[in-house]
Amino acid sequence: MAILRRRKINLKAVKELDGFPKVPDTYIKQSAVGGTFSVLSFCVIAYLVIAETQYFLDTRLQFKFEPDNDFIDAKLKVNIDITVAMPCSRVGADILDSTNQNLMGFGTLEEEDTWWELTPEQRNHFDSLKYMNSYLREEYHAVHELLWKSNQLSLLSDMPKRKNYPNHTPDACRIYGSLDVNKVAGNFHITAGKSLSLPRGHIHISAFMTERDYNFTHRINRFSFGEPSPGVIHPLEGDEKISDHSMMLYQYFVEVVPTDVRNLLRSYKTYQYSVKDHQRPIDHHKGSHGIPGIFFKYDMSALKVKVTQQRDSVFRFLVKLCALVGGIFVTNGLLNNLVQVFWYLITCQFLKNQDPRNEEKLVVSSPVVQNETPSSVDLLTAASPPILNIELNSKK
Description:
Layout: H1 2-6, H2 11-16, H3 32-57, E1 60-67, E2 75-84, E3 91-97, E4 110-114, H4 120-138, H5 140-150, E5 172-182, E6 186-192, E7 194-198, E8 201-205, E9 218-225, E10 239-241, E11 248-262, E12 267-281, E13 293-300, E14 303-310, H6 314-347, H7 356-364, H8 386-395
Parallel strand pairs: 11-13, 11-14
Antiparallel strand pairs: 1-14, 2-5, 2-9, 3-6, 4-5, 6-13, 7-8, 9-10, 11-12
């Protein structure tokens, strides 16, 4: 310990100690072209890294069709909100599927007496729903990914409540609610008269009603299947049919497509549907037979749509970043060398000798400057002066 204390440590030598190899200054060549390429490369790397990060944080949707095997004891939820321009005492709603089960086995729908004419606030809301749904049906292929990623169940809120009540009695009936039906083909209909269940079906009793009492002008506020889901457009919502004939038959042919959605957080099932509509007046004298009313004939598709939300893994994201940065550096070096070569060719820089060591050798071997002391002496080949020999002999 005493020896270590008496030992003097040179701090300057320790500070100047450097064990890492350094590149000689003669190997480093700075130029305006190289600096420009370095700045541009840094900007490109920063932009691509930000873009790649945004792409990693964003997700992609994959759509594919699969056979639908979920038919055993499966249920289908039907959501209904329809207003008919007839009092509730004169209309009845019922549903009948291919298993001969009717509304009594699926639940009940609420009936509310109301007025057909809407208030200005309600009319603005319904027109907005109609125009928005029409636009989305036409441009769905362009905005469908945005809708699926929005996580917004509905584009508009519920219709506002009526604040001003007309002086006359209600002339319309609002039928709304949800039913859990069998996952088979069925027929939901609204016709004149209340329904009466029978062992093999049902009938609608419309006694004491004339043809003038019929008016199947209707407004569809809601008609969907399954639970609400972002990205699913319901084509019938916002539809309004004004009838100029009392005995009118409206038919909607609906094909329901099951949809399984699996995103980054959860998985759930919903339903989409496509629809075709047809309408015609009932006139038995002209051979147009049928029952006036509103009929929704739906059927299940044999295929289902599977929507999967995907994102790259973190390891793949890091590999992409490394490849991106390394590729830009290599490309920057190649472009820099090419530009330097073309620049030297244009300015004829290759004809000039830029090595300072060659200039020193030329000065030493010049015959004009003989009395000057050379900058470097080769001790192996140079002759020793006679004075140096005398001094060496005297020392011996």
